[in-house]
Write a sequence for this structure.
């Protein structure tokens, strides 16, 4: 659990963090989003003391992070950046094993952990002996994720980790990450400027501008506040449509079906069809046609009437 | 705010004044120096220090100017041919030539020029060409191709483009090469004294051979100041 | 234009030039007499001439019309040509002159050098060009050592001074390489200090830069003054060999000279390390020491090696000047030769220096390449010498 209290950081006369308060619950994936220079990276890096704030405090599990040496803190926190920063002279295995080795894990334990992580991120076993320059962008970033998770930290910090990857690989890696997060339930703080990425991965989104948090809520709840100026400008006027990506048909029907369409793909199908209906097949073989009303009904099912 | 046109470089002026003082004032304070060093005034070189300095300058200036001419021409020609092989060949030959100790080049020029200033000029010329040529080629090579595109697009001929656009752009690099060449030459010219050339190497060598620190100082300080001065003056 | 063609044609031109009336050598009855010019015609008998021209023309024809496969065979044949000519030149016997065969000597002339240079250029073309260059030079060395070229002035001088030669060669290498090696640690530390304390950087770089700009000879000479004073004040130093002359001034000057390339390359290597790699290292929880030892320093090694390489090749050349201050080395031979107008002696001193410089450069190039491969780092070999 991460609690940020009244964090202030100035660079010269530029305010990067303006008395920021934020609480991140355990197991939550919080995405910080905002335009360039809004302070999201600064906020992220204040958590593992890569940035020293001018005033304010950060508490991890109710302990002030200044209470112990930065190295101890950092070894308990995973960190992924856009440029990955893999050590070029280490193999994939050695890169991943860095923190466990520092923590003096046994060789067997390290090997087991590396195998597990590579499996989890979909990296073939043969890659263990490869050097970073032999990897593609997506593969390198996966190794970065493995390396961040190697010592099984409770907290994972990610600063636009998928930004340098081409769009097609990015979707794959985002989906993979989402599944990993479902399984491991880490506390994740994720920085991005891509709304769609935020929608896909976040349990909560914090929208920032000029060092302040303008809004902090679940992705769905933001859609209920489209009248707010900042929601429209940062999340987009078409935010509700973007939100659709989060869910798929199985969520809508509350049961398994043969179709693996996400809801925005379903919407696209509806727009294509002359009568606005899309026919899908349930797991038990029966067929069903969905119309636009079914979509809106699902999206607003939790609203107070 | 008043904009100063010339910023006075302190170190540069220092070197310059120090050099002048040393060269022209050496006769006056050599007595004090001699007593400081505990040596006698001893052998005095037949030529006075100002003359030696001038000889040195002449050697360097002559060889360097000839080298600048040849290097620039050669560099421009090689660049115009746009032939990578020619460029790399020239660079490779240059670096091999650089590995050959300068004393050898001096020696090998003796059959052609005899003893004296001749072989030294030859060696100075060769060793000045290398950095200038290399920097000219590299400087021209490193120009953004889109600039060359734009120039051709406007309708410039390759020669015009070279002279009006590319050379000015490569100028800093070329000047750096000239600076290196001059410094190398000032250093190399000192060795010329071993084959009968003039210059500031004469008192240095004489001082070494006769264990006379005064002579050594006379030449060394002058030539070191000259080198520092030149290097500082051409610093971009 | 086909690759290698320029070298080939330029080489061919040089060879052709050397066939004209340029002197291929000089025959002298003894060291100081005037020489009889040896021309190309005198070197090889007529059939040799015809053979060579034939090979020459054929290889040019191949250049223009035929695939390169057959041409490389011819090029390989050409590699032995200079060596054979060398032996031919040294075998020159003038008519109508009395001479003592043990004293008379032949000096190589510009014609031969042009021929050698031309052949080197020609054979460098195409696959295996580098090997052919080395092969040509190896043949020349073989010819020199074979005993068939003993009347070459070069060999005569060598035979006169064999022990001295070996001794001075050893001294030269030791002086040059040891001074560079000693400068590695201080140089690296200075480079690191420049990065760590930016305010000191100007001073450090200015200091080491001074030694590069100041003429070597003057530094050498100046170094003699305090050393002489010191050895006079503390006689035990003189017993150790640290005097105003000898190896001491040369060693110190060479040491100072080696500092700049090592310092500036260390600085470049350290400062050019991928900042994201360094950031990851910190973020993973490495202490500054761990980061430096495991990540930063190893990744800067290619740059440091480049600096050491420069320092060593520089020193090999600069050690020649040690000969002027009694430090020995090949310089002693060279300057002796210069003072006696015995150019073959000068050549005898020069060839080892050039060979060593090229050799060390090549060895380090290989070292750099393997390190870069193993580290997976892309270092830009910008020789950042001020």
């Amino acid at each position: 659990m991460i609690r940020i209290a009244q964090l202030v950081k100035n660079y010269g006369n530029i305010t990067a963090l303006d008395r920021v308060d934020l609480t991140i619950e355990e197991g939550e994936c919080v995405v910080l989003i905002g335009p360039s220079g809004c302070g999201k990276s600064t906020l992220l890096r204040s958590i593992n003391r890569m940035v020293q704030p001018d005033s304010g405090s950060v508490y991890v599990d109710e302990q002030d992070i200044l209470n112990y040496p930065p190295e101890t803190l950092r070894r308990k926190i995973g960190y992924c950046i856009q440029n990955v920063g893999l050590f070029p002279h280490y193999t994939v295995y050695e890169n991943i094993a860095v923190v466990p080795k520092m923590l003096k894990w046994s060789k067997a334990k390290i090997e087991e952990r590396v195998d597990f992580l590579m499996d989890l991120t979909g990296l073939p076993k043969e890659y263990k002996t490869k050097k970073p320059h032999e990897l593609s962008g997506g593969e390198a970033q996966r190794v970065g994720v493995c390396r961040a998770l190697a010592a099984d930290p409770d907290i994972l910090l990610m600063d636009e980790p998928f930004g340098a990857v081409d769009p097609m690989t990015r979707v794959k890696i985002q989906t993979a990450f989402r599944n990993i997060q479902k399984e491991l339930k880490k506390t994740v703080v994720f920085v991005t400027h891509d709304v769609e990425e935020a929608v896909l991965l976040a349990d909560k989104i914090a929208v920032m501008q000029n060092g302040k948090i303008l809004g902090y809520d679940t992705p769905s709840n933001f859609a209920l506040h489209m009248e707010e100026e900042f929601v429209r400008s940062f999340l987009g006027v078409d935010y509700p449509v973007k939100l659709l990506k989060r869910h798929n048909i199985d969520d809508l029907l509350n049961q398994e079906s043969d179709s693996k369409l996400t809801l925005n793909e379903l919407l696209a199908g509806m727009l294509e069809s002359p009568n606005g209906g899309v026919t899908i097949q349930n797991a038990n073989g029966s067929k069903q046609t969905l119309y636009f009303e079914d979509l809106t009904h699902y999206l607003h099912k939790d609203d107070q009437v | 705010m008043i904009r100063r046109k010339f910023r006075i470089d302190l170190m540069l002026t220092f070197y310059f004044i120090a050099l002048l003082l040393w060269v022209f004032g050496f006769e006056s304070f050599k007595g004090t120096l001699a007593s400081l060093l505990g040596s006698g005034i001893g052998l005095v070189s037949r030529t006075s220090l100002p003359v030696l300095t001038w000889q040195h300058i002449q050697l360097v200036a002559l060889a360097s100017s000839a080298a600048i001419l040849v290097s620039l021409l050669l560099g421009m020609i090689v660049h115009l041919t746009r032939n990578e092989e020619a460029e790399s060949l020239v660079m490779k030959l240059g670096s091999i030539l650089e590995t050959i100790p300068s004393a050898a080049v001096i020696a090998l020029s003796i059959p052609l020029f005899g003893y004296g200033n001749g072989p030294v000029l030859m060696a100075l010329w060769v060793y000045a060409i290398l950095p200038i040529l290399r920097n000219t080629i590299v400087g021209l090579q490193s120009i953004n191709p889109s600039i060359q595109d734009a120039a051709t697009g406007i309708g410039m001929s390759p020669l015009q483009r070279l002279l009006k656009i590319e050379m000015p752009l490569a100028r800093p690099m070329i000047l750096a090469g000239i600076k290196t060449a001059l410094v190398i030459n000032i250093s190399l010219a000192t060795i010329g004294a071993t084959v009968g050339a003039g210059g500031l190497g004469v008192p240095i060598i004489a001082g070494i051979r006769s264990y006379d620190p005064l002579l050594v100082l006379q030449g060394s300080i002058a030539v070191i100041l000259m080198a520092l001065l030149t290097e500082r003056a051409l610093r971009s | 234009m086909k690759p290698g063609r320029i070298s080939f044609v330029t080489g061919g031109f040089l060879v052709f030039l050397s066939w004209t009336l340029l002197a291929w050598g000089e025959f002298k009855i003894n060291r100081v007499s005037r020489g009889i010019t040896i021309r190309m015609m005198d070197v090889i008998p007529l059939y040799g001439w015809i053979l060579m021209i034939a090979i020459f023309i054929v290889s040019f024809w191949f250049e223009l019309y035929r695939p390169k496969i057959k041409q490389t065979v011819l090029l390989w044949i050409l590699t032995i040509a200079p060596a054979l000519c060398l032996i031919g030149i040294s075998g020159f016997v003038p008519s109508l002159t009395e001479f003592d065969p043990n004293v008379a000597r032949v000096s190589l002339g510009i014609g031969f050098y042009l021929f050698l240079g031309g052949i080197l250029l020609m054979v460098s073309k195409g696959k295996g060009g580098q090997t052919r260059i080395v092969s040509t030079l190896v043949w020349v060395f073989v010819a020199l050592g074979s005993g068939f070229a003993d009347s070459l002035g070069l060999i005569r001088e060598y035979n006169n001074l064999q022990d001295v030669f070996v001794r001075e060669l050893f001294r030269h290498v030791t002086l040059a390489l040891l001074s560079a090696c000693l400068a590695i640690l201080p140089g690296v530390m200075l480079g690191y200090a420049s990065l760590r304390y930016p305010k000191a950087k100007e001073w450090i770089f200015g200091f080491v830069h001074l030694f590069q700009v100041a003429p070597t000879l003057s530094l050498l000479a100046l170094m003699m003054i305090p050393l002489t004073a010191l050895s006079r004040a503390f006689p035990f130093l003189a017993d150790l060999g640290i005097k105003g002359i000898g190896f001491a001034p040369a060693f110190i000057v060479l040491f100072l000279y080696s500092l700049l390339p090592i310092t500036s390359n260390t600085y470049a290597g350290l400062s050019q390390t991928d900042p994201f790699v360094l950031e990851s290292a910190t973020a993973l929880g490495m202490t500054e020491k761990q980061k430096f030892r495991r990540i930063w320093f190893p990744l800067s090694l290619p740059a440091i090696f480049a600096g050491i390489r420069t320092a060593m090749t520089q020193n090999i050349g600069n050690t020649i000047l040690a000969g002027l201050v009694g430090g020995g080395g090949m310089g002693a031979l060279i300057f002796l030769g210069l003072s006696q107008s015995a150019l073959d002696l000068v050549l005898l001193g020069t060839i080892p220096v050039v060979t060593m410089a090229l050799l060390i450069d090549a060895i380090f190039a290989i070292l750099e390449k393997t390190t870069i491969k193993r580290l997976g780092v892309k270092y830009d070999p910008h020789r950042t010498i001020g």
Q: What stands out?
A: Chain C has two domains: 5-150, 162-375. Residues 5-150 of chain C form one domain. Chain C touches chain A at residues 274, 276-287, 290, 295, 298-299, 374-377 (CB under 8 Å).
